[in-house]
Write a structure and sequence with these properties.
Two copies of one chain form a homodimer. Chain A is an alpha+beta fold. Helix content of chain A is 41%, strand content 22%. Chain A contains eight helices and eleven strands. In chain A, helix 3 crosses helix 4, helix 5 packs across helix 7 and helix 6 packs across helix 7. Chain A is elongated, with a radius of gyration of 20 Å. The first copy, chain A, binds a DNA duplex (30 and 30 nucleotides) through helix 7. Chains A, B: It comes from Rhizobium anhuiense.
Chain lengths: 240, 240
DNA sequence: GGGATGCTTTGATCTAAATCAAACAGCGAT
DNA sequence: ATCGCTGTTTGATTTAGATCAAAGCATCCC
């Protein structure tokens, strides 16, 4: 293999990432092996328990991370305590707000999770040096923007029942395929968190879930484990 | 001035843009004068009447645009006709979804507007050749993402009165300073559009506006023209 | 086992906002 | 002027979802 081919191969193929191991995030895939080695020297793999905050709303953060495993929720809270989940992120998403130090939202592990943490300064430098990385992060931002706008439609115009069905469908669609069938999954969110994602109350969430159960659209194995016999039927409940 | 200084100057300073004239958008500011000339050869300045669609939801679009003047609303509609405005854009914002041909939302002029239209293929090429442009568009995407998430909080957790106050405050904040005082502005949206932005009905919008009027927070000169005597008071109505 | 404790479900009631219905105001066309 | 036509306000009524309240059910600890 000549040099040109070799370099092309190294920059365009995910290279084993010591910190991230087999999983490759938005960041790792866009770096050359040299950059990856440098990033790895300064990055840290961390296990995060469900409920732990990764970034606090209003705080200055000096690091970014990649999700290796688990689900992270992005949350905004008002002074009086009302709160709204504004995004759910799954492996291998990137967590952080490029170009702005102060976070306007909090990021918190919804489930036990593993993240790969690296310093902000270093990645910012790499972004400015690596168009492919910029592009990769740009892509993720646009993907999140599409998701946020889709959710705005849900928040503004769907009924309680449609909202719950939309959430279940979203999670079923994004769940890690740990279970053999794609029709069973663990809910990464409590009823209270679901309420905060859907802009409603715990009680209404619960009532709508039992309504879906009684209609046979879902089976509730236990609070956190859901079986969906027919995904198309669930999808059809997301709008009239 | 030597060559190096001259080039630096040309790439880092907005260059007069024939099509866009004095106003410079996200795109123009990031291009070299050579690229700008090429873009100008293929771009078109267009006047758009209020209500005209720029991009249709679900359609493939072969162009992007910059807003020169006016307000553009981004809208999603469901099969049964329910609809939600998911973004408002003001001059000199960029309109279009880089990297994806099919639009998941429609863009429509909310007021009479002028836009600068240029071919998708050409700009896509320039994006890949110009890290500064990529960065500029990345910035705009992140800004829109922040705005979308802020609005999710409004949609999910604010009351009708708070929603209306939030919208008025948003518009007052982004309005072009055509009027001498920053406390008077034209509403770019009809009551129906406001309702679609806030996820509620026309009647509720109207009632909440008269409530604000009766409390003296706003004066309604006519349907479209609003005066805000005390901006801080308006802001305080956006949350309890 | 028997409490505590922390979710979750279920029930009864209330209310903010939707819906239904009418009147009103601006405006261009005849 | 008068007649539509469209967008807005106001009023009466209904309802989806919130709130208030209690009971069910796991899990952990003694």
């Amino acid at each position: 293999m000549d040099v040109a081919r070799s370099e092309l191969f190294e920059t365009s193929t995910p290279v084993a990432c010591a910190s991230c191991q087999a999983r490759h995030g938005v960041v790792c895939g866009a770096l050359s092996s040299g950059q990856l080695r440098e990033l790895n020297r300064h990055s840290l793999r961390r296990k995060i328990e469900a409920g732990c905050e990764i970034i606090a709303q209003g705080a200055e953060s000096s690091f970014y991370s990649n999700i290796m495993r688990g689900v992270v929720k992005l949350c905004k809270v008002m002074q009086d305590g009302r709160q709204q989940i504004v995004g759910l992120q799954f492996a291998p998403d990137f967590v952080g707000r490029p170009f702005v130090r102060e976070s306007t939202l909090s990021a918190e592990a919804a489930t036990d999770a593993e993240i790969c943490v690296f310093p902000r300064n270093l990645l910012d430098r790499m972004i400015s040096e690596t168009p492919e990385l910029q592009r990769s992060l740009h892509d993720q931002a646009l993907k999140e923007l599409d998701a946020a706008r889709e959710w705005m439609l849900t928040l503004g115009r769907r009924t309680a029942g449609e909202k719950v069905a939309s959430l279940l469908y979203l999670i079923a669609t994004h769940a890690e395929p740990q279970t053999a069938t794609s029709t069973a999954f663990d809910l990464p969110l409590s009823r209270a968190e679901i309420a905060d994602f859907l802009g409603m109350t715990i009680e209404t969430v619960s009532r709508q879930m039992t309504k879906l159960r009684k209609r046979g659209v879902i089976h509730i194995e236990n609070f956190r484990h859901i079986v969906v016999p027919d995904m198309d039927e669930l999808q059809s409940m997301t709008s009239a």
